[in-house]
């Protein structure tokens, strides 16, 4: 009997193998744990800030990593499977060792301050299903292969970082990805189309980037699509919204707001019945709202504001009872609001502002009891405000500004508006008083009732509005309580401790400022009471308003001294006290206001000298002290106010000279020193003020001449030097001031000729009257300027000699031209003498003239584009039309092309060649100024259905082009080979005369080069880029003309290929190859006539 195998098997050996296997597994596990341990320690070492000491105190070597905060290990392998250290305010970078956590399934480090680039080693975490790096400071590009290999990945969250560059293509290949969030970064470029067709993707969020391009038209055509949320707002996507979008039938949220989408709203969106949110605002959508939108019975949020939508709002929209937000503002909707608007009972926000709605606001709007925000501003609503609006207990904001509303506010206004925070009724026709009941709106924060016809006293109970921040009652008919001489309502408003802005402009208040004005809280930043008939002194207590930045008290009846306590207003930026009755000397205390930007104290009774300390307020931009009683000289320190844009010291008694230091001002716009007793000369340095627009030095005692340097003030529009003692002549250089619209030098001692060019062509005699001895054009009502008789006779004789010489020269030239024309029987045509003598050809045109002529090289002036540059139409100031060819210096060969055109066009002259007027060249810009051809190019006339050439025109064009080529090949000292002759380079003038253009690839051949270049030009590689392809072989039909037969297809292949060399030798006796190159366009003109006739060509011809 055999011994059983089990009895013979050596059990000790079995136990040995099991023991070894267990030991190996244990050792491997220990090694793997050590790898995870070292990886996490490497992460901790990269943390530069741990404000709560979480990792510092917890991630230590004394404990197992599986017990560390944020670390989860698997029960089977005891490896790290989850790392969650989110919201710990950690700062640092991710180390490459993060890629060694090979069992990691979930990685969450969101809401921290990690920075640097994403480590490429993340690609090794093949088990990852979820990555959340939201709300950190990661930057740089998303590595191309970082996530494409994570085939188990389901959730990828990278929003709110500073990532840039393109979205990697391989993200679209992740087979299990369900949510992709990349919003609030700096990503650009187009979105990989594969992302929109991922069969598992449910959420795409790319909001707030710089992504561009069109959405794929078939983005939802790939079978059942599970997409539920699509967020693309605040990018630069363009094109139309794909009509296939409705096939993503599971969509619940669509946000395409604030992109560049155009076209209509796709009606198919109405078939996405599960849609909850639809945001399309901030685009360029046009047309009407499709009625199908009303089929979205689950829709809660609908936003289409800031588009170009028109027409009426579909009535069915107002029956969508599920709507909670409706935003259609800033479009051009029209018509009236229907009563059905009251059916939107769940609506919490209604925005219809800035449209063209008319009629009355329906009373039914008061039925929307849950409404929190109502904005109907900037329309043309009429009649009174529905009383129901004032019974909406949940409403927080009412904006009805800029309409045509009339009537009074209801007597119960305020009783049922406990939640109202913003109340805007400005710019309407509302009347009546403000009742005390408004103070029951204790939640009010902003109130704007300006620009209406409200009247009656301002209530003294406004102090109950404890949360009030803005209160604007400007431009109404409000008054003060008749029982009080002071403005008592101001005392009440001091209880509003949050008040920041108070505006009472243009109301007949007729009262005094109370001493309690100093009790306003430190929050008050803006106070304006201009034109309110306020009387009395300015209370010293006003200096307590330490945070006041703007104070406007102009156009009142204030008198007394300017309080020295103003020096306490250290944050004051603008102070307006003009048009009052203030007196006394200018207080030095104002010099302490080092943040002051505008100081206006004109039209008062201020006396004494201007304090020199004003020059220490370096922040000052506007200084107006006009119409006072100031005297002494202008302090030298004033010219230290380098950034002063407005200086008005007119109508005072200031004396002394104008300092040459006036040129210290860096950006002045207006200087008015009129009606003083200034003396001395106008400093030459005044010409350095090149930003100045208005300067008036009239009614002073200035002497000397008008500085020639004033011609440098190129921005000047108004110059008044009248009623002084100026002498000498008006500098002719002032004709350079092209923006000058007002000029007055009357009542002076000027003499000499009045300039007549430039802006002086628009001035009348009133600008120059009552001077000593002026002469000039008759329209100035001055005698003509006398000319010396001897010099006149000499000039006359000189002109006679010149005219006689020119006449003889013209006769000789005409004879030569006639002989040449007879000799060549109109085959060769000499240059047009009128063209050669055209003064425009000799004119120098600056870069700035070109820029202005082309409206800054605007796309609307674009004529065409070529390989090396762009051509624009331009109009000079005298109305001359021209063409400007701007070379793109970034293109290889453009500079060489520019040089080639300049080399050729500077010497050749022919009536059938494009004439160059000028060139403009520097290191970064090169352009040619060419004669403008209004009839376009020959290609347009040959191949467009909108243009037609008859047989005579075709023949004339053929002769013109042939004459030009004949001149280039035989009529010039060097042989000129055009090298790019084609219909698009043949331009037509007003008389349909052809002109050959574009010499950018021209060759100049000497005698020794002729044959070599001729052979080269006959090769296909030599031909113009658009002449070698299919459909352009007609350019080779010159050979047919020369051989007298039609070339077959095979022969054309030979003609265009390598085998042509043998045939070319046979043709050389009949036609040079350069004629084959340059003459082909002539035959193309004729051939196009034949083709346009459908084959025969006889009818068209």
UniProtKB/TrEMBL annotation:
<comment type="similarity">
    <text>Belongs to the RLP family.</text>
</comment>
<dbReference type="InterPro" id="IPR017441">
    <property type="entry name" value="Protein_kinase_ATP_BS"/>
</dbReference>
<keyword id="KW-1133">Transmembrane helix</keyword>
<feature type="transmembrane region" description="Helical">
    <location>
        <begin position="801"/>
        <end position="822"/>
    </location>
</feature>
<protein>
    <recommendedName>
        <fullName>Protein kinase domain-containing protein</fullName>
    </recommendedName>
</protein>
<feature type="domain" description="Protein kinase">
    <location>
        <begin position="857"/>
        <end position="1101"/>
    </location>
</feature>
<comment type="similarity">
    <text>Belongs to the protein kinase superfamily. Ser/Thr protein kinase family.</text>
</comment>
<keyword id="KW-0808">Transferase</keyword>
<dbReference type="InterPro" id="IPR032675">
    <property type="entry name" value="LRR_dom_sf"/>
</dbReference>
<dbReference type="GO" id="GO:0051707">
    <property type="term" value="P:response to other organism"/>
</dbReference>
<dbReference type="GO" id="GO:0006952">
    <property type="term" value="P:defense response"/>
</dbReference>
<keyword id="KW-0547">Nucleotide-binding</keyword>
<keyword id="KW-0732">Signal</keyword>
<dbReference type="InterPro" id="IPR011009">
    <property type="entry name" value="Kinase-like_dom_sf"/>
</dbReference>
<dbReference type="InterPro" id="IPR000719">
    <property type="entry name" value="Prot_kinase_dom"/>
</dbReference>
<dbReference type="GO" id="GO:0005524">
    <property type="term" value="F:ATP binding"/>
</dbReference>
<dbReference type="InterPro" id="IPR003591">
    <property type="entry name" value="Leu-rich_rpt_typical-subtyp"/>
</dbReference>
<keyword id="KW-0812">Transmembrane</keyword>
<keyword id="KW-0325">Glycoprotein</keyword>
<keyword id="KW-0677">Repeat</keyword>
<keyword id="KW-0067">ATP-binding</keyword>
<keyword id="KW-0472">Membrane</keyword>
<dbReference type="Pfam" id="PF00560">
    <property type="entry name" value="LRR_1"/>
</dbReference>
<feature type="binding site">
    <location>
        <position position="885"/>
    </location>
    <ligand>
        <name>ATP</name>
    </ligand>
</feature>
<dbReference type="GO" id="GO:0033612">
    <property type="term" value="F:receptor serine/threonine kinase binding"/>
</dbReference>
<dbReference type="InterPro" id="IPR050647">
    <property type="entry name" value="Plant_LRR-RLKs"/>
</dbReference>
<feature type="signal peptide">
    <location>
        <begin position="1"/>
        <end position="27"/>
    </location>
</feature>
<dbReference type="Pfam" id="PF13855">
    <property type="entry name" value="LRR_8"/>
</dbReference>
<dbReference type="InterPro" id="IPR008271">
    <property type="entry name" value="Ser/Thr_kinase_AS"/>
</dbReference>
<dbReference type="GO" id="GO:0016020">
    <property type="term" value="C:membrane"/>
</dbReference>
<dbReference type="InterPro" id="IPR013210">
    <property type="entry name" value="LRR_N_plant-typ"/>
</dbReference>
<dbReference type="Pfam" id="PF08263">
    <property type="entry name" value="LRRNT_2"/>
</dbReference>
<dbReference type="GO" id="GO:0004672">
    <property type="term" value="F:protein kinase activity"/>
</dbReference>
<keyword id="KW-0433">Leucine-rich repeat</keyword>
<keyword id="KW-0418">Kinase</keyword>
<dbReference type="InterPro" id="IPR001611">
    <property type="entry name" value="Leu-rich_rpt"/>
</dbReference>
<dbReference type="Pfam" id="PF00069">
    <property type="entry name" value="Pkinase"/>
</dbReference>
């Amino acid at each position: 009997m055999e011994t059983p195998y089990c009895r013979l098997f050596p059990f000790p050996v079995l136990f040995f193998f099991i023991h070894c296997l267990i030991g190996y597994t244990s050792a491997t596990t220990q090694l793997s744990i050590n790898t995870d341990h070292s990886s996490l320690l490497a992460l901790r070492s990269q943390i530069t800030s741990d404000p709560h000491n979480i990792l510092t105190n917890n991630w230590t070597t004394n404990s197992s990593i599986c017990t560390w905060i944020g670390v989860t290990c698997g029960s089977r392998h005891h490896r790290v499977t989850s790392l969650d250290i989110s919201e710990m305010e950690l700062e640092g970078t991710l180390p490459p060792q993060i890629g060694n956590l090979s069992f990691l399934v979930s990685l969450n480090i969101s809401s921290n301050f990690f920075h640097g680039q994403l480590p490429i080693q993340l690609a090794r975490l093949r088990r990852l299903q979820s990555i959340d790096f939201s709300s950190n400071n990661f930057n740089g590009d998303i590595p191309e292969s970082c996530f494409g290999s994570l085939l188990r990945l389901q959730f990828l969250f990278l929003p709110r970082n500073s990532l840039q560059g393109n979205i990697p293509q391989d993200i679209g290949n992740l087979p299990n990805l369900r949510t992709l969030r990349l919003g609030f970064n700096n990503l650009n470029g187009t979105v990989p189309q594969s992302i929109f067709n991922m069969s598992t993707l449910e959420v795409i969020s790319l909001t707030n980037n710089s992504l561009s391009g069109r959405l794929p038209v078939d983005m939802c055509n790939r079978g059942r699509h599970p997409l539920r949320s699509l967020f693309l707002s605040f990018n630069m996507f363009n094109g139309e919204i794909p009509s296939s979008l409705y096939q993503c039938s599971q969509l619940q949220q669509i946000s395409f707001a604030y992109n560049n989408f155009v076209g209509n709203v796709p009606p198919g969106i109405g078939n996405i019945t599960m849609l909850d949110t639809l945001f399309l605002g901030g685009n360029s959508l046009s047309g009407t709202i499709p009625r199908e939108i009303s089929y979205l019975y689950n829709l809660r949020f609908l936003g289409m504001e800031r588009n170009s939508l028109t027409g009426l709002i579909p009535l069915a929209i107002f029956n969508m009872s599920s709507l909670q937000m409706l935003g259609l503002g800033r479009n051009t909707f029209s018509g009236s609001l229907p009563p059905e608007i009251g059916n939107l009972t769940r609506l919490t926000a209604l925005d219809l502002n800035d449209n063209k709605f008319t009629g009355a606001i329906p009373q039914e709007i008061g039925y929307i009891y849950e409404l929190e925000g109502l904005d109907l501003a900037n329309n043309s609503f009429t009649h009174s405000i529905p009383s129901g609006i004032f019974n909406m207990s949940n409403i927080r904001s009412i904006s009805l500004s800029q309409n045509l509303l009339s009537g009074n506010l209801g007597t119960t206004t305020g009783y049922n508006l406990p939640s109202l925070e913003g109340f805007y009724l400005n710019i309407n026709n509302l009347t009546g008083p403000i009742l005390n009941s408004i103070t029951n709106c204790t939640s009010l924060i902003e109130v704007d009732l300006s620009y209406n016809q409200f009247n009656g006293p301002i209530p003294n109970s406004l102090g109950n509005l404890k949360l009030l921040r803005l209160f604007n009652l400007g431009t109404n008919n409000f008054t003060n309580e008749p029982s009080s001489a002071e403005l008592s309502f101001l005392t009440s408003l001091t209880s509003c401790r949050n008040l920041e802005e108070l505006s009472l402009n243009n109301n007949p208040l007729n009262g005094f400022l109370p001493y309690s004005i100093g009790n306003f809280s430190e929050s008050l930043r803006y106070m304006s009471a201009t034109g309110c008939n306020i009387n009395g002194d300015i209370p010293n207590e006003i200096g307590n308003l330490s945070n006041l930045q703007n104070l406007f008290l102009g156009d009142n009846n204030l008198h007394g001294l300017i309080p020295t306590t103003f020096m306490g207003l250290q944050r004051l930026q603008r102070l307006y006290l003009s048009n009052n009755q203030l007196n006394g000397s200018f207080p030095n205390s104002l010099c302490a206001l080092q943040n002051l930007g505008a100081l206006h104290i004109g039209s008062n009774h201020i006396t004494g000298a201007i304090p020199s300390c004003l020059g220490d307020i370096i922040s000052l931009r506007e200084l107006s002290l006009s119409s006072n009683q100031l005297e002494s000289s202008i302090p030298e320190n004033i010219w230290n106010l380098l950034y002063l844009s407005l200086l008005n010291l007119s109508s005072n008694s200031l004396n002394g000279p104008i300092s040459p230091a006036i040129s210290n001002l860096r950006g002045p716009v207006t200087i008015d020193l009129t009606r003083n007793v200034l003396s001395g000369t106008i400093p030459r340095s005044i010409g350095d003020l090149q930003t100045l627009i208005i300067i008036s030095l009239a009614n002073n005692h200035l002497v000397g001449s008008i500085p020639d340097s004033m011609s440098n003030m190129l921005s000047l529009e108004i110059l008044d030097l009248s009623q002084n003692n100026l002498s000498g002549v008006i500098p002719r250089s002032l004709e350079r001031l092209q923006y000058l619209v007002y000029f007055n030098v009357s009542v002076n001692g000027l003499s000499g000729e009045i300039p007549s060019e430039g802006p002086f062509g628009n001035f009348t005699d009133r600008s120059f009257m009552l001077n000593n001895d002026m002469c000039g054009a008759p329209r100035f009502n001055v005698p003509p300027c006398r000319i010396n008789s001897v010099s006149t006779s000499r000039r006359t004789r000189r002109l006679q000699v010149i005219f006689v010489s020119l006449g003889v020269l013209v006769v000789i030239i005409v004879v030569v031209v006639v002989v040449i024309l007879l000799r060549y029987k109109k085959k060769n045509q000499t240059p047009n003498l009128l063209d050669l003598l055209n003064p425009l050809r000799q004119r120098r045109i600056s870069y700035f003239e070109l820029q202005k002529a082309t409206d800054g090289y605007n796309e609307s002036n674009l004529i065409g584009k070529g390989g090396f540059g762009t051509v624009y139409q331009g109009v000079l100031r005298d109305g001359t039309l021209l063409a400007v060819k701007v070379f793109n210096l970034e293109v290889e060969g453009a500079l060489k092309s520019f040089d080639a055109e300049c080399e050729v066009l500077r010497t050749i002259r022919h009536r059938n060649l494009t004439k160059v007027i000028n060139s403009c060249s520097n290191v970064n810009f090169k352009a040619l100024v060419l004669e403008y051809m209004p009839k376009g190019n020959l290609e347009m006339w040959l191949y467009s259905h909108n243009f037609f050439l008859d047989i005579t025109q075709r023949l004339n064009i053929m002769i013109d082009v042939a004459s030009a080529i004949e001149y280039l090949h035989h009529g010039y000292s060097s042989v000129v080979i055009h090298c790019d002759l084609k219909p698009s380079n043949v331009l037509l003038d007003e008389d349909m005369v052809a002109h050959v253009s574009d010499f950018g690839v021209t060759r100049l051949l000497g005698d020794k080069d002729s044959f070599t270049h001729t052979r080269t030009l006959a090769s296909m590689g030599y031909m113009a880029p658009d002449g070698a392809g299919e459909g352009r072989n007609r350019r080779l039909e010159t050979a047919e003309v020369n051989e007298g037969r039609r070339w077959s297809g095979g022969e054309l292949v030979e003609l265009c290929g390598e085998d042509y060399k043998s045939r070319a030798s046979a043709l050389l006796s009949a036609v040079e190859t350069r004629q084959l190159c340059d003459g082909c366009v002539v035959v193309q003109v004729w051939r196009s006539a034949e083709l346009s006739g459908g084959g025969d060509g006889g009818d068209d011809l």
